[in-house]
User: Which sequence fits this backbone?
């Protein structure tokens, strides 16, 4: 089979690319290579951005403000002109399926083992070495480790319960972005998270930024403890769904363009923000860049997800947290206390200006962050 674009992997990143291609309908031959055809609900993405995108009809909920909670109190963050949004996977997979039909894309339900670029085409082979697809370009969203190990390597890892009640117990107008009243790990930062879809249905999640994952029992115990903090009676609630995830937080560099005709997407393409693990907004930007480029007859190579200076700032922050130079809860609370919320969120999306970045840097603890920056520089020189 010979195509113009081969999507290797069919998850969120590939679904966003398909949806974007469907909007532009560039008239190219497309193949999707994945042993699983993603359908239905298997994950939830939460992200911030401006209203009025093609994703708006797919959203389960949006919020114009969000709470950050510490043991000292609750901070309500006005997000305008941004908004916080929730997208469940089923509507996105459905939209991608519609685009797949519009593009007359071919689906190959085999596992891709290799994508070999000979300089003119990419040959994608299965586990037995047999060629599955030849493509002018391969867009590969399969998980990949960094090109080299990071100086600091943490994880964003979490478990969320979708809780349902027979009576109103949630406030659908209030989203909790970070609730730091959870017991803090010896090395890392933990917080709770509440995204209510209605007054009777909400995602309640426990998240850690730390070097290692927990056991299943430990996640459940942490969620029960957080439900107690929220005043929720689990005896009156039903756990309708469970969501787990592990996302890398590392200053190790990912390789978004490993060969002339292979482009990596998602985490493997550098879309994950090292300081937080957030990924969705950068994946959406990558998808739109690719679709616009294909429609214009250009190579489907997206712009870098984040400016180089932001990756350096993330490396310094990770080092400061990992070495215990700053207290994680106090660090994030201070960042939101001394900056407009939309500036912090735009920074985490990689869209702030240099002047705004300098303002953000000046609002962090000067001496510990200077020590972390110096240690990072030494680490880079040794590398």
Assistant:
């Amino acid at each position: 089979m010979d195509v113009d674009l081969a999507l290797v992997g069919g998850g969120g990143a590939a679904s966003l690319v398909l949806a974007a291609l469907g909007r532009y309908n560039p008239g190219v031959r497309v193949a999707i290579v994945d042993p699983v055809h993603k359908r239905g609900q298997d994950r939830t993405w939460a992200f911030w951005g401006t209203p009025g995108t093609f994703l708006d009809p797919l959203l389960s909920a949006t919020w114009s403000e969000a709470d950050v909670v510490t043991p000292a109190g609750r901070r309500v963050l006005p997000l305008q002109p941004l908004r916080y949004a929730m997208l469940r996977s089923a509507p996105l997979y459905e939209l991608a399926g519609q685009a797949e039909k519009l593009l007359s894309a071919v689906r190959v339900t085999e596992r891709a083992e290799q994508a070999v670029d000979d300089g003119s085409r990419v040959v994608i082979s299965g586990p037995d070495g047999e060629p599955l697809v030849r493509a002018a370009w391969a867009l590969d969203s399969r998980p990949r480790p960094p090109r080299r190990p990071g100086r600091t390597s943490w994880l964003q890892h979490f478990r969320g319960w979708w809780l349902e009640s027979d009576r109103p117990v949630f406030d659908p107008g209030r989203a909790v972005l970070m609730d730091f009243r959870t017991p803090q790990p010896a090395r890392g930062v933990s917080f709770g998270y509440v995204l209510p879809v209605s007054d009777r249905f909400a995602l309640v999640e426990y998240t850690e930024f730390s070097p290692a994952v927990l056991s299943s029992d430990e996640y459940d115990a942490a969620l029960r403890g957080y439900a107690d903090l929220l005043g929720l009676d689990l005896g009156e609630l039903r756990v309708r769904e469970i969501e787990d995830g592990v996302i890398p937080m590392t200053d190790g560099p990912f390789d978004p363009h490993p060969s002339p005709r292979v482009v990596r997407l998602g985490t493997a393409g550098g879309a994950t923000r090292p300081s937080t693990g957030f990924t969705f907004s950068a994946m959406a930007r990558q998808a739109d860049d690719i679709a616009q480029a294909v429609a214009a007859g250009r190579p489907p190579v997206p712009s870098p997800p984040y400016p180089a200076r932001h990756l350096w700032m993330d490396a310094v922050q990770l080092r400061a947290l990992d070495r215990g130079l700053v207290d994680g809860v106090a660090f994030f609370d201070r960042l939101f206390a001394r900056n407009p919320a939309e500036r912090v969120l735009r920074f985490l999306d990689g869209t702030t200006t240099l002047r705004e970045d300098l303002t953000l840097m000046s609002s962090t603890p000067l001496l510990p962050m200077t020590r972390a920056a110096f240690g990072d520089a030494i680490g880079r020189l040794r590398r």
In short: The two ends are 43 Å apart (CA to CA). The chain has three domains: 2-62+88-147+251-295, 153-249, 308-382. DSSP finds nine helices and 17 strands in the chain. Residues 66 and 174 are 6 Å apart (CA to CA).
